[in-house]
Amino acid sequence: MVFGVDGKGRLILNAHYLGLLELVVLIFGSQVVLGRTRYFDFKIHYANVSRLCHTKSAVLVNGRFPGPATYVREGDRVVVKVTNLVSYNVTIHWHGVRQLLSAWADGPAYITQCPIQKNQSYIHRFRIVEQRGTLFWHAHISWLRATVHGAFIIFPKRTNPAYPFSMPQKELPPLILGEWWNANVEDVSAQALATGGAYNVSDALTINGQPGDLYNCSSDGTFVYHVSRGRVYMLRIINAALNFQMYFAIANHTLTVVEADAEYTQELLTDMIILAPGQTTNVLFTTNKSSGDYYIAASVYSTPNAEIVPFPQTPTTAILRYEAAGSGTGQVVLPSFPLANDSSLHVKLSKALKGKQFSEGFYHFDVPQTVDYDLLHTIGYALQRCAAPNETCMGQRNIRFRASMNNISFVSPDAYSILEAHYNHVNGVYTTNFPDAPYFKYDYTAVNPINKAALSGTRVRVIPFNSTVQVVYQDTATLFIQSHPMHLHGQNFYIVGTGNGTYNPKTDPATFNLVNPPSRNTVSVYPGGWAAVRFRAINPGAWLVHCHFDIHMSWGMDMVFITLNGKKDSEILPPPPKDLPKC
């Protein structure tokens, strides 16, 4: 047993596993300050939740929606026991946590582990190494993360000053953007996958699980942030929505962006930000307005028009309430949002965001100046013919909707996880022939190809340890252009370049920022454009790459990088834990 209970009923680790944790400390040496071991107990169960004049049974963690926020510190060891008490298979992913030498704890179903089955448990064990800031955890199987998600906050290690920017006078509770379906969300996803057609769009957007004042039967639950006039506050914002990017603003207040995806940024002043699913942003703002109530609001940013991709039209709201204003006095001011398909703010903010320069030991740049592997990954839609004459396909022209990367639509294994197959040298689970570039080259954003079919398969790309990798994510006009939030597990990347149209490998690299690019785990690719990212592969394991729109991931916009072990003992993935779930 690697996990047990002591005489006082507390969760404990045995000496063998503590030895592995100490190995991580040795690997990263002075970069790690030995922290506490923090224990969490997640019980996944059913509970009734009422929204929009409707009550349904939902899957929750510890009876909460959103789930419990977890607070840790850089250098801490984290131990989370996840117990599944529902009929669905479950996994939990620690979104943005680098999982150095702990790939077994990452959580995506059938990639690093088999799911946790009903009445079974799995203990995630990992260490927070050289990370601080706002991340989140969520279910990573089917669409359960609609209600199974929560904040994951990493405070800086105590040996550093608190932040490399002006210290806020107070920190507000995390703000989580999401979506709400009156229907069972698992039924929604199952219907879409069974028919091959479009999915039923959510009934509301939410802030901290509440739709807000602009929705029916919702005002009593609207989340209220209480503030005092004349102070500087920090707010941590997380987009946990399944399928929509969102504009975000606080009416009449200026935001200063200081962190994105748990990486410090140069201070960026703006009235509004955009967050894609999977992205997080920390902002500062000053309460220097007249006493009263101001809406904190989010609205959909979706580049296809609503006739092509429907979306909830009503913004979600919370309230910023100045203490002197009393309870709900006067008219509440609502931010004004751009048109849903206006990508100008997306482009403006992407160009303006820069990484934080080295200061007081907070941050160092390790941007690869040259690359060992230069990859082009096209992303977009595909169509697939019905598998059988009597099969019902409700996609365009009676064909099934799919999505792909480099014209490969990912098929998840179901009898073995990819990481287990790699570690144990099991054949037949995946192939290693994911292409470095599309098979056919053309003007990807100007041409809607006649052949919209994609190949299907479980393909991975193997990367030697310590290799430098560049990936250009290229949107395509297959069916229609759309912005895609591409998320990499296991490590962050530097966003060294972005642009509109089809990427030109001869001229576009001259525009790259190799000095102070932002470091993130999720990049939002321009609609009809591209984004170039670079990273160094120093974390052995199987790392999923996918669009963070759940419908696109379900349709196959995924692939996997397998980073091989290095030569030193400190560069080798430890064996799987004994309680790793079985398929």
Automatic annotation (TrEMBL):
Function: Lignin degradation and detoxification of lignin-derived products.
EC number(s) given by UniProt: 1.10.3.2
Gene Ontology CC: apoplast
Cofactors that this protein relies on: Cu cation
Note on how the cofactor is bound: Binds 4 Cu cations per monomer.
Plastocyanin-like domain: residues covered: 44-157, 174-324, 445-565
Entry keywords, A to Z: Apoplast, Copper, Lignin degradation, Membrane, Metal-binding, Oxidoreductase, Repeat, Secreted, Transmembrane, Transmembrane helix
One protein family per Pfam: Cu-oxidase_3
Name the record gives this protein: Laccase
Signal peptide stretch: none
Domain of life, source organism: Eukaryota
Membrane-spanning intervals of the chain: 15-34
